[in-house]
């Protein structure tokens, strides 16, 4: 019985690995063990946008492929020996996804579930009040926003000089 499994791969090579895996399945004649191989991606829709323009495809899970397959040794070997494939999620005994999880991913890919582009609540040049730490109560201007690390560089006037201070998102009030 074919079930869905998650395979961790090198991020950025999803399409290449998908094509390579499909080619290898056909070459080895293991079609009977495999179903679909998905690179989960979806079109982003802007929330509350009158024009409904999309921002293009965005991968839902960068660095992962979803593979419908029977978990037999030949099929597992083929997947694991594909270049740039790291491992099955679940280790030596990969755990299949539930039908509910797969249905949700596929509905996101079809656009039935809207994904909103992440919008930063902090913008360079805006004023914030520091709420925690030794500079609590100071007001400064955001110079740099690091979304991935949730850090801000805020310029604060200390003794009449503008001084950069690095803070976490949780240390400031808008």
Describe this structure in words.
By secondary structure, the protein is an alpha+beta fold. It is about 20% helix and about 35% strand. The chain is built from three helices and eleven strands; from the N terminus they run E-H-E-E-E-E-H-E-H-E-E-E-E-E. Strand 9 (about 150-160) and strand 10 (about 160-170) form a beta hairpin. It is elongated, with a radius of gyration of 23 Å. The N and C termini lie far apart (about 55 Å).
Q: Main beta sheet, described?
A: 5 strands, antiparallel
User: Cα-atom Rg, whole angstroms?
Assistant: 23 Å
Average residue-wise pLDDT: 85
Strand content: 35-45%
Give the count of helical stretches. Answer: 3
Overall strand count: 11
Q: Name the overall outline.
A: elongated
Low-confidence stretches: none
Helix content: 10-25%
Secondary-structure element series:
EHEEEEHEHEEEEE
- Order of strands across the main sheet: 10-9-8-7-11
Tell me the distance between the termini. Answer: 54 Å
Helix and strand content put the structural class at alpha+beta
Which key terms come to mind for this protein?
four-stranded antiparallel beta sheet, five-stranded antiparallel beta sheet, alpha+beta, 36% strand, 11 strands, elongated, 174 residues, 20% helix
Offer a quick outline of the entry.
With 174 residues, the chain is an alpha+beta fold. It is 20% helix and 36% strand.
